Amino acid sequence: MTPDELQAVGRWMSAHVPGYSGPLSATKFATGQSNPTYRLNAASGAYVLRRKPPGKLLKSAHAVDREFRVQKALWDTDVPVPKVLALCEDESVIGSMFYIMDHVSGRSFPDPTMPDAVPGERADILSEMALTLAAIHEVDLEATGLAEYGPPGNYYARQLDRWAQQWEASKTVDLPDMERLIGWLRANLPEDDGQRTLVHGDYRIDNLLFASEGSRVTAVLDWELSTIGHPYADLAAVLMQWKLPPGEEGRGLAGIDRSELGLPSDEAFVATYCEARGIGPIDGLSYYVAFAFFRMGAILEGVKRRALDGNASNPESGLRLGAWVPRFAALGLRSAEER
After folding, report:
1. Is residue 109 part of a domain?
2. From the CB of residue 334, how many other CB atoms can be counted at a distance below 10 Å?
3. pTM of the model
């Protein structure tokens, strides 16, 4: 954020954020490929600013206004979210839409193996992760005003069309595995079972904050891709992440001895989630996981495209993430074979 932008934000906050007082300073978070995110320090306390990136953007992407709306709706529910304070839709202030929310303290675990935790703690943390996901999917859409937050109809049909279009709009190379995966997903689209819940859209452990002591989730972050849809999309996204290799880039659990680390199996995690929601075993999860690989591959190709076009939040990281797209396509096809 430039000095001029910071001054403009300070002036805007003085007029729109109750209790705000400067001076204001900003530090950019290293995470957050899609929407640049800053910690703001002021005399009145700590805040977080999320903004759309500059430059030409894909249609419907970087929806910080949707993030603001859903977090505001969830403030008095069982889903822990930061308190949002103000949304600026006037792009003339700093060149793009942004919103301000309270800063929430907590532990972040970018690596699902949680190397600094102990086995019992790891199990408790992932149990809370499952319970929080169930709470998201049990949100009363009418009571929160979110009933129209997403269009009606078959969620997977809608999402498949959307992300196939995004793939075509952002792809930098031809990738036969991705085309085969899209074809398989279309051919094996499950019938609409009528489930319609709030969906986070990018649910994984590094988008959660946990209490400094204990396993309580203090905040669910990054709601840009949230909508009303099918709850198994979020569940499958967790399982997809764990099928990736461990380490800073993959951040998965493939090849890890989970029992030694005190980490639950996929089956145990799903069982905790199902018990919390009061539902029975889930059939056909492999389709949902295959779709999750496709969708994330399309997202990462968009990140790569923005890096190449010069308007990524972190261009170097964007190119590294984009290099994973062929792996996501291949793993999606592997999940399809497990059906």
Report:
1. no
2. 15
3. 0.89
The per-residue pLDDT of the chain, averaged, comes to 92
Give the C-alpha separation, 302 to 305, whole Å: 5
Residue 15 belongs to what domain range? 3-102
Residue 310's pLDDT is what?
Answer: 83
Query: Looking at the domain assignment, is residue 111 inside a domain?
Result: no
Q: Tens digit of pLDDT for each residue in 201-222?
A: 999 999 999 999 889 999 999 9
SS3 content of the chain, % helix, strand, coil (to 5): 45, 10, 45
Candidates 227, 236, 134; CA nearest to 190 is 236
Query: What CATH number does residue 40 fall under?
Result: 3.30.200.20
Contacts (Cβ under 8 Å, ≥6 apart) of 87: 64, 65, 68, 97, 98, 99
Q: What CATH number does residue 153 fall under?
A: 3.90.1200.10
| Rounded (5°) CA angle 332-135-290 | 5
Looking at this protein, which amino acid is placed at residue 65? D
Residues of the chain scoring pLDDT < 50: none
pLDDT single digits (tens) 29-50: 876 557 889 999 999 999 999 9
End residue of a domain, out of 53, 75, 102: 102
Instruction: With beta carbons less than 8 A apart as the criterion, state whether 276 and 130 touch.
Output: yes
CA-to-CA distance for 65 and 30, rounded, in angstroms?
Answer: 22
Do residues 23 and 171 both lie within one domain?
A: no
